[in-house]
Amino acid sequence: MYRNKGISRFAWLLLTVALIMAATSVTTWAAPKETVTVLGVWGGQELQAFNKVLAAFEKKTGIHVEFTGTRDTVAVLVTRLQAGNPPDIAALATPGLIWELASKGQLVDLGKVLNMSQMKKDYAQTWLDLGSYKGKLYAIFFSVDLKSLVWYSPKAFAAHGYKIPQTWNEMLALTKNMAASGVAPWSIGLESGAASGWPGTDWIEDIMLRTGGPEVYDKWVNHEISWTSEPVRRAFELFGEIARNAHYVYGGPTAELSINFGDAVKPVFADPPKAYMLKQATFIQSFIRQAYPNLQPVKDYSFFAFPAIDPKWGVPVEVAGDGFEMLRDTPAARKLMQFLASPEAQEIWVHELGKLSVNKRVPLSAYPDELSRKAAEIVLQAKVARFDASDLMPAALGSDAFWKGVLNYVSGQDLDSVLNNLEAVAKKAYGSK
Amino acid sequence: MISTGSPNPAVPGGKHRPAPAFRLAVPGAAGTVGGVASQAFLHLVIALMCLAWILPTLGVLVSSFRPASAVANSGWWTIFANPFDLTQYTLANYQQVLEQNGMAQAFWSSLLITVPATLLPMLLGGFAAFGFAWLRFPGRDALFLLMVGLMVVPLQMTFIPILRIYSRTGLAGTLVGIWLAHTGYGLPFAIYLLRNFFGTLPGELFESAYIDGASPLTAFLRLALPMSVPALASLGIFQFLWVWNDLLVALIYLGGTSSLAPLTLKLSSLVGSYGQEWHVLTAAAFVAMVVPLILFFSLQRYFVRGILAGAVKG
Question: Is B137 in the same domain as B38?
Answer without folding.
Answer: no
